[in-house]
Amino acid sequence: PLAEPKHDEL
Amino acid sequence: MNLFRLFGDLSHLASIFILLQKIQSTRSCRGISFKTQALYATVFITRYLDLFYEWVSLYNFTMKVFFIASSCYILYLMKYKYRPTHDPSIDTFRVEYLLGPCVVLALLFHYKFSIPELLWSFSIFLEAVAILPQLFMLQRTGEAETITTHYLAALGAYRALYIPNWIYRYFTEDMVDPIAVTAGLVQTALYLDFFYVYFTKVLQGQKFELPA
């Protein structure tokens, strides 16, 4: 399963 | 963090320093779209609201503060300090045609129906198209100062480098962010025409001129 996107990019 | 993203972010930083250098050295913001810069400030402010309640890393925090501060400073330079050098009559792209669809897209595509998440989605979609007033202006005038093209190239490189970053993250972290990836691909595609002229003309020492 794919991990849920976290907003850690800029 | 991987090297693609690091170099992407560094390229983004470089683009802002090149833009500041262009404005300060020519004492003019000629050739720069105020609308694009205002859209970028909107992008950073709506996306980085999490600055106040979410800690990712010192790197992330510092970059966010820098992007918000520098985009507001550029707006100040354009609106006040170098106001006479800005010609609104060639910066005519209708930004409402960008803002409206981005609001709709954010309402349709988001990870959670909450104010910060909707604003985050909105900022992602808006960033994808924020360069359009600038490219439109370039298209209208048909030429650009070399330093302005370096600014655009660094900005485009930042977006392009995020693509291998996402591929890398897919394999190493099993992570995919479909909203960011889709918007990012669109955003990078918008630069293709520009890159073609940049590589075939500017990097060969010629002036950036579009064929008539």
State the total count of DSSP E strands of chain A.
0
Low-pLDDT stretches of chain B are none
Strand content of chain A: under 5%
Largest sheet of chain B: 2 strands, antiparallel
What is the approximate shape of chain B? globular
Termini separation of chain B: 44 Å
The largest sheet of chain A is: none
Mean pLDDT of chain B: 96
Catalogue the unreliable spans of chain A: none
What structural class results from the helix and strand content of chain A? little secondary structure
Biggest sheet strand line-up of chain B: 1-2
Tally of helical runs of chain A: 0
Written overview of the protein:
The complex is a heterodimer of chains A (10) and B (212). The termini of chain A are far apart. Chain A contains no helices and no strands. Chain A is mostly loops and 10 residues long. Helices cover 0% and strands 0% of the residues of chain A. Chain B is mainly α and 212 residues long. Chain B has one domain. Chain B has a two-stranded antiparallel ribbon with strand order 1-2. The model of chain B has no long low-confidence stretch (mean pLDDT 96). The A-B interface holds A 1-10 and B 5, 9, 12, 50, 54, 56-57, 60, 63-64, 67, 111, 120, 162, 165, 173-180.
